[in-house]
Specification:
This protein is of the alpha/beta class and 210 residues long. The protein has seven helices and ten strands. 44% of the residues are buried. It comes from Saccharothrix mutabilis subsp. mutabilis.
Length: 210
Amino acid sequence: MKFADRADAGRVLARALRRFEWTDPLVLGLARGGVPVAHEVALALGAELDVAVARKIGAPGRPEFGVGAVTADGEPIFDARTLAYLGVSVADLAGVVEEERREARRRLAVYRAGRPVLAGRDVLVVDDGLATGVTARAALREARQGDPRRLVLAVPVGAAEAVRDLSAVADLVVCPRERIDFRSVGRFYRRFDQTTDAEVLALLEQHRHH
């Protein structure tokens, strides 16, 4: 069963999330691909929508292979097992880390009108899928610093191992389609184009006037 696109995935996820009671919910879409999913969730829950930005740190020569992640502020997170397997050290990645941190800062500057208040609220970090979970882990760690009442990771589809790992980081992980045979997020979507800055801004704008 593939999702038609991210909006479809968001509606499936929203149905799973409506079973819970929420306190002043704030939905943070992981920019960029998580935002169209988060948009549907925020509409269904009558929640505020904002963005979270965490950038994947790719392996040398294989940028699509995530070995870590970094947010605009804070230390990068690395997957020690993957680094050991590839024979790569943290020092080898210093240049990539700085580059991705700059891009994270650029995106926040573009997307955010101000910083949303997280304290005392149910905060839902939403992405379009969970493969290794390293970017979600970085986003959750940053959101935790805002002292939310409850910190939730919500994804329409995810690798079973990553869902299990992140259950130790978030207070709750909601994933309607957990898969052992994961491989990549894109294979669970019929349409999986890159989400653009313009699309993210349009969705955020829609909520600011909702």
